C-alpha cells in the first residue's frame, strides 16, 4: 500500500529534515520522495521514526537553550511536528473507509 503525498507536503517534510540537531542518518527514501511523491509502508515507517527523533532532539536541546540557539531548536521541533502531522493525515487518508 503506497502512501501518496502532495508536492507541498513533501516540501514541508524536506524542510523538517534540514537544519536540526539530530545526528542520526537520514532515511534513504528521502532522495526519491521528491520525485515519486510516494512511499512504501516500510519507507513511511522509517520516515516517521526519523521525524520523531528530530522532534525529540529539538525539544531535548531546547529545554536548556536561549537566544538564537533556542529559537533554532524550537523551529526544528515545530517543522518535524508539522511533518509528522502531514504523515498522520496521509496515513488516515490511505485507510479504506468503512
Q: What report would you give on this structure?
A:
By secondary structure, the chain is mainly alpha-helical. 68% of the residues lie in helices and 4% in strands. It is built from four helices and two strands; from the N terminus they run βααβαα. The chain has helices spanning 7-16, 30-36, 41-62, 67-94, and strands at 3-4, 38-39. A two-stranded antiparallel sheet has the order 1-2. Helix 1 (7-16) packs antiparallel against helix 4 and helix 3 (41-62) runs antiparallel to helix 4 (67-94). It is elongated, with a radius of gyration of 14 Å.
Cα gyration radius (Å): 14 Å
Q: How would you spell out the order of helices and strands? A: EHHEHH
The gross shape turns out to be: elongated
Total of helices:
4
Average pLDDT across residues? 87
Instruction: Give the beta-strand count.
Output: 2
**Alpha-carbon distance between the two ends:** 17 Å
The major beta sheet can be summarized as: 2 strands, antiparallel
Helix coverage percent of residues?
Answer: 55-70%
Share of residues in strands: under 5%
Structural class: mainly alpha
Strand order of the largest sheet: 1-2
Unreliable residue stretches: none
Amino acid at each position: 500500500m503506497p502512501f501518496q503525498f502532495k508536492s507541498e507536503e513533501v516540501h514541508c517534510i524536506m524542510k523538517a529534515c534540514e537544519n536540526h540537531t539530530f545526528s542520526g542518518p537520514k532515511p534513504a527514501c528521502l532522495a526519491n520522495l521528491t520525485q515519486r511523491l510516494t512511499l512504501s509502508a516500510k519507507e513511511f515507517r522509517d520516515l516517521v521514526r526519523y521525524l520523531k527523533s528530530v522532534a525529540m532532539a529539538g525539544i531535548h536541546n531546547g529545554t536548556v537553550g536561549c537566544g538564537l540557539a533556542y529559537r533554532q531548536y524550537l523551529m526544528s521541533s515545530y517543522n518535524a511536528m508539522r511533518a509528522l502531522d502531514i504523515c498522520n493525515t496521509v496515513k488516515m487518508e490511505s485507510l479504506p473507509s468503512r
